[in-house]
Design brief:
- The chain is mainly alpha-helical and 362 residues long.
- It has one domain.
- Helices cover 77% and strands 0% of the residues.
- It is built from 14 helices and no strands.
- The longest helix has 31 residues.
- The protein is globular and about 60 Å long.
- The relative contact order is 0.19.
């Protein structure tokens, strides 16, 4: 019935994929109590920038990936950042909303991808399980988005800014429907797993420990923080560090699979051959990035620095007018997320678990 498989090995998996989310929650809640805005924004920046750096070296440092995706690696950045530049000039708020939605989708797909790797390593699950797992991630994350106070406050403010009034009764109905759908789906998902087990398909318990730890972090942080930056610390500690660890071990396994002959160019071979080198260059990359944007926040506000004025109180939902500190947190989160669009794009096609080339590194 049970067949255990690990992304890396038992020790590393329990540290990075099971234990890390619990530590990240504690770190975020501690940050909320003790640190000012600038420190919160800096922590988010220093966590998220190195994992973007890991993407650049995965895509441009692996000769195999360069050969397979050359056109997309050249044309994609030009097209995407052209739209980003245009959006900043014409519709900055819309751009930030699109980037935020892409960030949510990217987060869901990363955890789904790790779940798929767990089943791949254990040869677990039925042929239909990938679709069930994807639906599970969307429903659990969507339920949090529709119900967690932190998330509800943000999207309600945005709807009211657009003059889209949401009556209290309608909101309560949406939230009740969300919890109902979530509960019913969990029952159906459990039936699917049990049925598959009876048909001889094994279950990898590590996958479910991983998903439980991930959603504990998201749900707990979304219900117990008042700032999107604080939520971002918990999320990015988990998301960013897990990604970096995965890239390091993936590239090393690719080298072992092909004898180090075809998968890497000489720069990637040197970088990924040394964890210390990777960490040091990641730090330098983060320093350069921070120096590049080290200007007053209002110079990077794109006209949105006083965004609190656009979000008055919503008395019927018990939401006060947006305070100035919260507008700073939202702006900081948006600017940090905006630089990640290329990372989201690359990850949408370089981590397909069903791809035989990717499987070599798993």
């Amino acid at each position: 019935m049970f067949q255990t498989g690990y992304i890396i090995n038992p020790r590393q998996d329990y540290i990075w994929f099971i234990g890390l989310p619990l530590v990240a929650v504690a770190a975020a809640l501690g940050s909320q109590s003790w640190l000012p805005f600038v420190a919160l924004a800096s922590i988010n920046l220093w966590i998220t920038v190195p994992h973007h750096f890991a993407t650049w070296f995965r895509t441009y440092g692996l000769a195999e990936d360069w050969r397979r995706f050359k056109e997309r690696l050249i044309i994609g950045p030009i097209v995407i950042y052209s739209f980003v530049f245009l959006g900043l000039q014409v519709a900055p708020i819309t751009l930030l909303l699109v980037v935020s939605l892409w960030d949510h989708q990217h987060s869901i797909m990363q955890q789904h991808g790790f779940a798929r790797i767990y089943d791949f390593k254990a040869k677990a699950g039925t042929p239909q399980t990938p679709r069930w797992d994807l639906a599970l991630n969307w429903i659990l994350y969507g339920n949090m988005f529709l119900n967690a106070p932190l998330m509800v406050t943000m999207w309600l403010r945005e709807l009211y800014r657009l003059n889209l009034v949401v009556p209290v009764g309608l909101l309560q109905g949406i939230q009740l429907a969300s919890w109902t759908v979530t509960a019913l789906f969990l029952v159906a998902y459990t039936v699917h797993i049990i049925r598959g087990s009876r048909q001889g398909y094994p279950i990898n318990p590590m996958k479910y420990l991983f998903l439980a730890a991930s959603y504990f972090l998201w749900y707990y942080a979304a219900w117990h923080t008042a700032s999107i930056l604080v939520f971002g610390i918990a999320h990015r500690l988990m998301h960013g560090l897990q990604y970096i660890v995965m890239v390091l071990f993936y590239v090393r396994r690719k080298r072992q699979a092909d004898g180090g002959n075809r998968s890497q160019n000489r720069y990637g071979k040197w970088l990924f051959g040394s964890t210390l080198a990777f960490v040091l260059i990641s730090v330098v990359y983060a320093v350069i990035y921070q120096l590049a944007i080290q200007k007053p926040m209002n110079e990077f506000g794109f006209g949105l620095f006083n965004i609190a004025e656009q979000y008055p109180a919503i008395p019927e939902h018990g939401i006060e007018a947006m305070p100035g500190w919260l507008s700073l947190h939202l702006l900081g989160e948006a600017l940090i997320s905006a630089v990640a669009v290329l990372h989201y794009y690359f990850d949408s096609f370089i981590w397909k678990v069903r791809d035989e080339h990717v499987q070599e590194g798993l």
